[in-house]
From TrEMBL:
<dbReference type="InterPro" id="IPR010260">
    <property type="entry name" value="AlpA"/>
</dbReference>
<keyword id="KW-0238">DNA-binding</keyword>
<protein>
    <submittedName>
        <fullName>Putative DNA-binding transcriptional regulator AlpA</fullName>
    </submittedName>
</protein>
<dbReference type="GO" id="GO:0003677">
    <property type="term" value="F:DNA binding"/>
</dbReference>
<dbReference type="Pfam" id="PF05930">
    <property type="entry name" value="Phage_AlpA"/>
</dbReference>
Length: 71
């Protein structure tokens, strides 16, 4: 029987994925009702399942919601 590895992400990885948003903006997004719930809260912060965060990002990108600041 094979083991399944879970990929986890913290706020820094979410920040990078969303285009280097500020820590405050990532905090706001991760506290939204439509953002996935964290799987744990450690001393260094909350962690999420990467697949759930990716699905949330993809849904927002597909709906045309802008995430990155214009350059």
């Amino acid at each position: 029987m094979g083991t399944r590895k879970l990929k986890l992400v913290g706020s820094h990885e979410i920040r990078v994925r969303l285009g280097w948003l500020s820590r405050q903006r990532v905090y706001q997004l991760t506290n939204r009702a439509d953002f996935p719930r964290p799987v744990a809260e450690l001393g260094q912060g909350k962690i999420w399942l990467a697949a759930e965060v990716e699905a949330w990002c993809a849904e927002r990108e597909n709906s045309g919601v802008r995430q990155k600041k214009p350059t």
